[in-house]
Amino acid sequence: MNVRFSLLAVIILVLIPLGAVGGANWRYLFGIVIPYTAFGVFLFGFSYRVFQWGRSPVPFRIPTTCGQQKSLPWIKGNFLENPSSGAAVFARMALEILLFRSLFRNTKVALVGQRPVYGGAKWLWLAGLTFHWSFLFVLLRHLRFFTTPIPSWVDVLTKIDGFFEIGVPTLFLTDAALLLAVTYLFLRRMVIPQLRYISLPADYFPLFLILGVVLSGILMRHFYKVDLFRVKELASGWFRFTPVIPDGIGLPFYVHLFLVCVLLAYFPLSKLMHMGGVFLSPTRNLANNSRTRRHINPWNYPVKVHTYEEYEDEFRDKMKAAGLPVEKE
Amino acid sequence: MSLVKVRKPDELTQINFDPPRTGWMSTPVEFRPGTWCYSAAPKNLKYLDLPNPREWQPSDADWKLPLNWKEIILEGFKERLEKYRSFRLFMDICVRCGACADKCHFFIGSGDPKNMPVLRAELLRSIYRRYFTTSGKIMGKLGGARELTVDVLKEWFYYFYQCTECRRCSVFCPYGIDQAEITMIGRELLNLVGCNINWILEPAANCFRTGNHLGLQPHGIKDMMDFFADDIEDRTGIRVEVPINKKGAEILFVTPSGDLFADPGTFTCMGYLMLFHEIGLNYTWSTYASEGGNFGLFSSHELMKRLNAKIYDEARRLGVKWILGGECGHMWRVLHQYMDTMNGPADFLEEPVSPLTGTKFENARSTKMVHITEFTADLIRHNRLQLDPSRNDHLKVTFHDSCNPARAMGLFEEPRYVIKKVCNHFYEMPENTIREQTFCCGGGAGLGTDENMEVRMRGGFPRANAVKFVQEKHGVNRLACICAIDRATLHSLMEYWVPGVEVTGVHEMVANALVMKGEKKRIVGLRGEPLSGTEASKDV
User: Fold this and answer.
1) Residue A62 in contact with partner chain B when CB distance is under 8 A
2) Residue B108 and residue A139 in contact, taking contact as beta carbons nearer than 8 Å
3) Which DSSP helix (H) or strand (E) runs through B284?
4) A2-321 adopts what CATH topology?
5) For residue A169, is the peptide bond before it cis, meaning its omega torsion is within 30 degrees of 0?
6) What contacts B28, CB < 8 A, 6 or more positions away?
7) Where would a tag sit more exposed on chain B, N or C end, judged by fewer CB atoms within 10 A?
8) Would the CB atoms of B102 and A197 count as touching at under 8 Å?
């Protein structure tokens, strides 16, 4: 149900530009209005969500410690897994964000002879890492459509990506990797019963959407070729705020562009916001130094306590009888 | 222990990880005996001024909620989204990758899909989406949103009191989403409409009034201490002094009251008394702040603060220089991550310095509170203790990292250093079950009661299974820990899953190995068992 709904939604999203651009020729809408709107929604939505998180304070210092604390001088602290300084937190966060450190720990439990056994399970980490890094590479490669002259590092990146020179035009490794990773992430959601049980349409939809973006991109490069000079004309027009619709950009481009626009607009409304959230997670981005430096809670308020005086008033006689010192005789 | 009601271990291990056919939103919770805890007695709520005191039980159809319960919950929800970035973020950014799913001891031991941390969190997230996000309001169930009903509330109760706030899932989450944080907020919401359990609120009410969870009154504490001193004299020939409420002492010692009351915690407590006597520490116990543990943590941040306030207040009244804390798990979550923020600054105290070694505990320079294993490790490192580890040669020891000192502090090496210096046979459990990956005893976060024994045994299964592994491989017969709840709950767990393994605090082993000045020939240990290398043990 959840899968079918999401798949159907993405199919409809593919059909929309096919009909509207191919049939009704609404190129201005799909080439200019929708991209601007989508980008605007993305920027505003993303900022708003981050602002919303930022508005909620961090009342307590609650890092999850995954290594030895810094305590006595002769005990070696693990600064990466249990940072006690800002620099160490930076390193921990870099590991998390660039290499998915926590996901690398992943294990899988199996029952062997009615007893749990814990095995390594690195596939999710590998697929996740491949997916995100490939996505980033692909995104950076696309800069060549927006810049003149093309920065040399984008060229270098593109050369590396096409290093093996398979086919004409060269197959980009990151395209293949991205496709494989998305497929894996989708299949595991379908195949692992527990994962299937917890999956919502909001989990399948972005996968299908990204798959659509990648496939339309690959199709456009290798099979239904579009005129890249015209595409670049359009793309640089957006950035000069003087967009024009050049003639002769093929239909596959509009499908690709429309799916990207949907992804951008959907981003701030969805779990994809983990991209921003991962930086703000209080269990990771705080130093474990709450005994060294006082953390301030901005909304700390006085509470009703049971004072020593009240306590002694109730138990004074018993305390005296037991020979315990009291404040008031 | 009421194991009568619990099925045999063989039956309990028939675990099926496959989820049911019905979707989780349409699978209502069933309150089967052995899986839930009794409701809090109205007198305890009244004593703490908590809302909606009444007679009820979770198995009742009618929970006697206030008429406007829904408003209260949603208002409370909104307030907490605005107060805790953690909560808001953890509602928003989960991608349901499932990395946490099989990390929860309750899931491993039960196979109940709602015990996967991700799904336990979705119980709250579905309500968050419905009432606090635009997409949830529009999309409804397709957007993963659902209406807040009494059934949802019951589900919260069942599963938030089936989470021990151990933070193991948070170690594996790529975004550090911490189920403990979500459970804490979930329980706060439940508390707003009076849905709480007695095993948490009775200790909390006791603690508020008498200073400790067990409700020991000052003269009772004095009696216990005298009793311990008698026992110690019997074992060692030395009469230890036990200073109580002593003004002007250098150090205030605070530990969980559970160790004053029940074996084997009592032996740990005697261990402290012997150690402090031997090194001539100028310290004091307090009857007012006679509790290190904090059952407020299991109800709400506010209650946590109310109970915790006594420690600094008492330190100020007694005029001590700094505070030493005993072996306890949740206690150290509060002391390490909350106390200074909630009830500090402790600027009336001094930066802790060991009076024996001169070591400055720089890692505690703001809270002024030092963990006993940090203190003892430092003593041993500086050769201030004369130890005979061979007295513990009859023990084959493994160490259970308690959840909170492990994942909310990173206290791994200090206890291990102490253990290795006081006993010769130490074996680690498998690496996926210790240190930051340690498994809960199954009874943490206020769930260590008897009526939910089945859930405890299930939740403790992964821990027990690891102990069994080292029992089979190395003949381990003693499970050491640094937590009072562990000492109370692991005992039942071992009896059920791993007979032949007994539970001990680290300082019980320290005391047995401690060579005291002027002691008589030590024949038996604190629990009366023959010590190795003595006449008594040779006779056996």
Assistant:
1) yes
2) no
3) strand B283-284
4) Fumarate Reductase Cytochrome B subunit (1.20.950)
5) yes
6) B151, B154, B155
7) C
8) no
Backbone φ, ψ for residue A24 (5° rounding): -90, -10
Contacts of A198 in chain B (CB under 8 A): 24, 96, 98, 101, 113, 116, 118-119, 122
A222 touches chain B (CB under 8 A): no
Q: How far is Cα B196 from Cα B180, in angstroms, rounded to an integer?
A: 17
Length of chain A, in residues: 329
Domains (range + CATH), chain B? 9-30+51-195 (1.10.1060), 211-381 (1.20.1050), 389-539 (3.40.50)
CA B176 to chain centre: 21
Res A273 pLDDT > 60? yes
Band of pLDDT at residue A147, cut at 50, 70 and 90: confident
Q: Do A300 and B93 touch (CB under 8 A)?
A: no
Distance, CA of B206 to CA of B266 (rounded, Å): 20
Nearest chain B residue (CA) to A310: B209
Sketch the domain layout of chain A as residue ranges: 2-321
The pTM score is 0.95
Give the pairing of strands A115-120 and B369-371.
Answer: unpaired
Q: How far is B365 from chain A (nearest CA, A)?
A: 5
pLDDT tens digit string along A3-34?
999 999 999 999 999 999 888 889 999 999 99
Q: Which residue is associated with the tokens 């459509």?
A: A145
Contacts of residue B258, defined as CB under 8 A and 6 or more positions apart, other chains included, come to B213, B214, B265, B293, B484, B485, B487, B488
Q: What is the pLDDT of residues B88-147, one digit of tens each?
A: 999 999 999 999 999 999 999 999 999 999 999 999 999 999 999 998 999 898 889 999
Nearest chain B residue (CA) to A66: B436
